[in-house]
Amino acid sequence: MMSTGGMPEMVFEYILKENGIDPSSDLEINQSIDFGATAAAFSENLGDFTVEFEPGATALEKEGKGYVVASLGEDSGYVPYTAFSAKQSFIDENPDTIQSFVNALQKGMDYVQSHSPEEIAKIIEPQFPESDLETITTIVTRYYDQDTWKENLVFEKSSFELLQDILESAGELEQRAPYEDLVTTSFAEKAAK
């Protein structure tokens, strides 16, 4: 069986399938390249397309070696790439800690909803010393224009089901998990108010 790769590839293949393209017969996906080296391999003409995280995609454009032609995030819907997990016992014993953590994250979400890409880029620039402000602004603008950031942190059932659809499509999920048993939204809902 062919390896399914990580989430970027599983999302990519899911989008292909949703658009009537069979990843196993309609194209060739090279999975032998370390994910950190795919932009360099693409730059050396190894492949016609590449799936890149930022700042790799923008770097390829700036170097004149490629163009961003689509966004997996736009084409897939809200895939929950990041989720925070805690044992039920920790949640029960530390609700104030959980709420404070979620409130802080929501504060960041509120910031990106109420500020321009230029303002966001300037604030986050120190976190990305390998990238200049112009590159960071380009990336943030792209995410901003694509509506990448939700307004809140509520892990909606539709996103949970989409994640399971993607994992199932990739052959990585044998049995679906019940949303109600695994997801707690009360902290995010309270933070969003």
From TrEMBL:
Coiled coil: none annotated. Belongs to the bacterial solute-binding protein SsuA/TauA family. GO terms for cellular component: periplasmic space. It holds the Pfam family NMT1_2. Its main location: periplasm. This is ABC transporter substrate-binding protein. Gene3D superfamilies: Periplasmic binding protein-like II (3.40.190.10). PANTHER family: ALIPHATIC SULFONATES-BINDING PROTEIN-RELATED, TAURINE-BINDING PERIPLASMIC PROTEIN.
